Amino acid sequence: MTKRPQTILDTIGKTSLIALRHVVPGNGCRILMKLESENPTGSMKDRMALAMIEAAEADGRLAAGGSVVEYTGGSTGVSLSLVCAVKGYRLDIVTSDAFAREKLEHMKVLGARLRIVPSEGGRMTGKLTRDMIETARIVTAETGGFWTDQMNNRDQIAAYHAMAEEIWVQTEGRIDGFVQSVGTAASLRGTGEALRRRDGRIRIVAVEPAESPVLSGGAPGGHKIDGIGAGFVVPLWQEGIADGIEQVSTDEAAAMADRLAREEGLFAGTSTGANVVAALRLAGQLGPGATIVTVMCDTGMKYLSKR
């Protein structure tokens, strides 16, 4: 008998995996999309937000009636806003005008208090990330809250181990490649680690903005792919975490997001577009009969004001 959810948090995870039907490689390789838009806030970040808060509750870093602090491009903030609303924690979010207005409004509706750090022309840059981190330090000192510190927090990795197990079961173990864009690197690292434990031959590919190819050893730069490309090598990134790194431009990612909506009915953000661009490239390397899994990171409803 299926257990009924007790709160909205019990519906996080167990998302669908579907095959792309029209946006496909010409060589017969299959590309499967993990629909993380099915999570309560429409984002895969629901998984990591819940994991970080529950780990802090378990070891006493976060007590009943306490408060939480985080810096975020939006999706993590929305997910934390949901978790904190359900669990009764005050939440202070440091974010920026560089990110989609819908995300900022969603956080406020769920009860978060926002501190906005101005950007340079609406672009994501390394300086903006560092400014947000420093502001989060200040807010934490002011409030005495628990700082989830997503760039360094390893508790979230377990959430993506669980996502990998879902993928393994859904593909019945028939998976040759996994592709994911890099923000904190937790989703790529956690999912990749768990899939490699199942089958060390699975090829893991990281995706970063072509305008800021720091993981590939290039120079940082500004881009407009929400949620990825911090502008520096993030702490959770490790050498060997991926077998390859694909650089995808903002224009390529946006164009693919449009194709997914019009040809597949999958309305997603630009990070998802970047994932599919990279998955198609990997398909050309793996050849006929291969199966590649990538992620629909969130719903495009979060980005309507940026289109």
Folded structure, characterized:
This protein folds into two domains: 8-38 and 160-306, 3-Layer(aba) Sandwich (Rossmann fold), CATH 3.40.50.1100; 45-147, Rossmann fold (3-Layer(aba) Sandwich). It is of the alpha/beta class and 307 residues long. It starts with 16 loop residues before the first strand and ends in an 11-residue tail after the last strand. The longest helix is centred in the middle third of the chain and has 18 residues, at 126-143. The radius of gyration is 18 Å and the shape is globular. The protein is built from eight helices and ten strands. It is 37% helix and 17% strand. Strands 1-2-10-7-8-9 form a six-stranded mixed β-sheet, with helices on both faces. A four-stranded parallel β-sheet has the order 5-4-3-6, with helices on both faces. The chain has helices at residues 45-59, 75-87, 101-109, 126-143, 157-170, 186-198, 250-264, 270-286; strands spanning 17-19, 30-35, 67-71, 90-96, 113-117, 146-147, 177-181, 203-209, 244-248, 291-296.
Strand percent estimate: 15-25%
**H and E order:** EEHEHEHEHEHEHEEHHE
Q: What's the helix count?
A: 8
Low-confidence runs: none
What attributes does this structure have?
307 residues, alpha/beta, Rossmann fold, 2 domains, 6-stranded mixed β-sheet, 4-stranded parallel β-sheet, globular
In short:
With 307 residues, this protein is an alpha/beta fold. Helix content is 37%, strand content 17%. The chain has two domains: 8-38 and 160-306, Rossmann fold; 45-147, 3-Layer(aba) Sandwich (Rossmann fold), CATH 3.40.50.1100.
